[in-house]
Amino acid sequence: MAATFNVNAEAGLQKLDGYLLSRSYISGCSTIDLHQCCKVAPAADDDDDSDVDLFGEETEEEKKAAEERAAKAKASTKKKESGKSSVLLDVKPWDDETDMVKLEEAVRSIKMEGLLWGASKLMPVGYGIKKLQIMMTIIDDLVSVDTLIEDHLCVEPANEYIQSCDIVAFNKICKFLVPV
């Protein structure tokens, strides 16, 4: 005969604990064990699981929350505007006999999507040699400054006038939102 325990009383729980010290079961593997376990852990009245939907039907609150998550996900997948940078280049000629007007024309003749040439001026280096300092604004995702220098400024025909190029300043352009 199976042992019975009154798990609703303290003495019955102690008797069950003593019984389970030498066994891993109450009465073999049977439905009696299930009934005993159900007596050990009855559901409390305040622990109501009626709000759990086992069939996947959503409440209005859940639908609104899902719509908000979808809207946030859609907003994050929108194409973000690429950053811009302002770059100041030093373009150095080969010698003092280099025609600086043609050097600047060679630099400004480089056209790329996302590249905008700005102001320029001639700066003395020494011994009558001047360098061209020129500003450019680039869209970061479209123009690589290193590629611009290596593939466009330091190759034919521009290298006839240009000895080297250096980046003097590289600044990110930030957008500030001003409240209206």
UniProtKB/TrEMBL annotation:
Which SUPFAM superfamilies does this entry report, sorted A to Z? eEF-1beta-like (SSF54984)
InterPro entries named in the record: eEF-1beta-like_sf, EF1B_bsu/dsu, EF1B_bsu/dsu_GNE, Transl_elong_EF1B/ribsomal_bS6, Transl_elong_EF1B_B/D_CS
Q: Which GO terms describe its cellular component?
A: cytosol; eukaryotic translation elongation factor 1 complex
- Coiled coil (residue ranges): none
Gene3D superfamilies on file: 3.30.70.60
According to the entry, every stretch annotated as the Translation elongation factor EF1B beta/delta subunit guanine nucleotide exchange domain falls at 84-173
A Gene Ontology MF term for this entry?
Answer: guanyl-nucleotide exchange factor activity
Q: What keywords would UniProt list here?
A: Elongation factor, Protein biosynthesis
Q: Can you tell me which family this protein belongs to?
A: Belongs to the EF-1-beta/EF-1-delta family.
How it assembles, according to the record, is: EF-1 is composed of 4 subunits: alpha, beta (1B-alpha=beta'), delta (1B-beta), and gamma (1B-gamma).
| Role | EF-1-beta and EF-1-beta' stimulate the exchange of GDP bound to EF-1-alpha to GTP.
Stated name of the protein: Translation elongation factor EF1B beta/delta subunit guanine nucleotide exchange domain-containing protein
- What taxonomic ancestry is recorded? Eukaryota, Viridiplantae, Streptophyta, Embryophyta, Tracheophyta
